[in-house]
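ARCHIVE CARD
CATEGORY: sequence design from structure
SOURCE FIELD: tokenized fold
FIELD CONTENT:
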């Protein structure tokens, strides 16, 4: 599991249509992300490795 911090931007590798998400919280492998086209979701970071998005590629 990659260390994710609130405010970081990510993509879900299996759901690119969700758009870019912003990490809201990350506690013990449970990451809450607010995605552009899917809304707020709780992701198990032990199962899904979210891909970081660099600010210039947003």
């Amino acid at each position: 599991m990659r260390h994710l911090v609130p405010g970081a931007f990510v993509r879900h590798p299996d759901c690119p249509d969700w758009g870019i998400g912003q990490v809201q919280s990350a506690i013990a492998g449970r990451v809450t992300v607010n995605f552009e086209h899917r809304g707020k979701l709780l992701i198990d970071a032990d199962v899904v490795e979210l891909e970081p998005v660099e600010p210039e590629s947003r």
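CARD ANNOTATION: Residues 23 and 33 are 4 Å apart (CA to CA). Residues 9-57 form one domain.
SHELF: design records, drawer C
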